[in-house]
């Protein structure tokens, strides 16, 4: 591809990237990987520490749960504006700024004030919106022939990040206290910011005329299908974080075993996160891949809803495999269903805004269903229902089209 073709596609000129800075691409790969490691742990670290934080601030169960809700609401409101920030500041500087805001928010939420706890949570979520939305643009722009591979690296390290936040929260708390845990774990964002600093001087500003106009996405059925698919994957993850442990203990599992399975659900998704994007990118379309992922989620959901003992544990792990595969495919769609980096960024903003709105409803509706019924029998079918939705939406979003 020539320099002119690269510029018309919204990509950086080949000569400046590859001849003047031969070190750029290897460091950029490391920066993308480290970014993946930094984008979920600041959120998942809060879940296991809910009781300690609630006791420290005198919060009710609803107040503790609101920390997750606030995060998702910020994602919904702020995600569509991330591409605007990237266009005005330059993508690389915006990513650096996002990670620095995460670090600042992590510090603020340790201050001895309930207001600071929520304000810090808002800052963390605001900061995460920037890399979450802008990194698919970077992948689409700088790795047009390796979208699947780079998406796999990003989403698999996201999976590891989520698991690390859950696994390390309690050990760090028992050793140094929860204030240290919720500050140290997000510190990976600071390292990510440092690694992105060398790219700040490039000041890439995507051409707003490249790709689809911003308003037309909201009128595109394909864009809505990608958004709904992303929402189903996020709903599955956040509903599991909120309610899987009580669902499992209700079926006779110990709290320790249930918590361990929740961590494994997050961690086991790393394997399909590595495999799915390259496979999806090689195909003309992703209909079959999406259908298989939906079937895996559906089978796991049925096992969670109907079994006990070892079969129940297997069901949770199958759900984890399907969840990791589904989320990696959702991120792959951002590059595969668009033709330019700007279009990828706009689709990322829309899908994450709408998707997290869907995800925010999941824990609330499951909790209400449990309160109304006084049982977990109905809510346990949530994962099977999501699997069926993934199957349907994925086959629509997976068709060989672009927004």
Q: Could you walk me through the main structural features you see in this protein, from its secondary elements to its overall organization?
A:
It holds the Pfam family MFS_1. This is Cyanate transporter. It is a multi-pass membrane protein. Residues 28-402 form the Major facilitator superfamily (MFS) profile domain. The protein has 403 residues and is an all-alpha fold. It has helices at residues 3-8, 14-18, 24-38, 41-44, 50-57, 61-78, 82-89, 91-108, 114-142, 147-176, 178-184, 188-196, 214-217, 221-250, 255-268, 270-282, 287-306, 309-336, 341-373, 382-397. Helix 10 (147-176) runs antiparallel to helix 16 and helix 14 (221-250) packs antiparallel against helix 18. The model is unreliable at 1-6 and 11-20 (pLDDT under 50).
Features:
about 400 residues; mainly alpha; about 80% helix; disordered N terminus; transmembrane; MFS_trans_sf; transmembrane helix; membrane; MFS_dom
Strand content: under 5%
Straight-line N-to-C gap: 22 Å
Structural class comes to: mainly alpha
Q: Outline the low-pLDDT stretches.
A: 1-6, 11-20
Helix content: over 70%
- The shape is globular
Instruction: Give the count of helical stretches.
Output: 20
Give the integer mean of the pLDDT values.
86
The major sheet is characterized as:
none
Could you give the count of β-strands?
Answer: 0
Order of helical and strand elements? HHHHHHHHHHHHHHHHHHHH
Radius of gyration: 20 Å
